[in-house]
Amino acid sequence: MADALAATTQSDNENIVAARIARDVYKVPRVVARVYNPGRREVYERLGLQTVMSTSWGARRLEQMLLHPGLIDMEQIGHGDVKLLNVRVPEPWYGMAVTEVCDGSAVVCAIERAGHVFVPRTTERLQADDLAYLCIPAELLPQIVAMAPVA
Is 103 left (phi over 0), alpha (psi -120 to 50) or beta? Predict the structure, then answer.
């Protein structure tokens, strides 16, 4: 018996059938299906299947790379209420304690500085050329996008 299945053919129909058979017939505990047509995602969700949509992710990533190259929206948590971002530290944050970012509404999970990544202590201060990995409430995203450097 398999512990997991990833249904990743180039056909949404084949992926949904394979995922349902694996889950419902063979009782595979972890099943994920790739969805190509965004319009079909609702069908998968109504059937209780976890999905990955590379087309939506890819389109969002292309937009970010073109419009906001200093910011990477890495992940959403829950139903998008919380975002995990990688942002080049904007000038107004230089010298700011990690606990002060976005008036304390953001959590700086990690900092990349001079090729080294580390989890900051609460006393750590941000520096020019730092990349900050932030966990933020989704409603702060426009504020971060407006501040993100362009390169």
Answer: left
- Write the CA distances from 143 to 10, 23, 49, 62, 139, integer angstroms: 38, 42, 34, 20, 8
Would you state the pLDDT for residue 40?
Answer: 84
Digit-coded pLDDT (tens) for 16-34: 999 999 999 999 999 999 8
My answer on whether 76 and 129 are in the same domain is yes
CA distance 112 to 127: 10
Whole-structure pTM value = 0.60
pLDDT, one tens digit per residue, over 110-121 is 999 999 999 999
Residue 49 to residue 57: CA distance in whole angstroms: 18
CA distance 78 to 73: 15
37, 71: one domain: no
Is 141 found in the same domain as 74?
yes
Do 23 and 72 belong to one domain?
Answer: no
Residues 87-137: tens digit of each pLDDT: 889 999 999 999 999 999 999 999 999 999 999 999 999 999 999 999 999
| One domain for residues 32 and 91 | no
**43 and 78 assigned to the same domain:** no
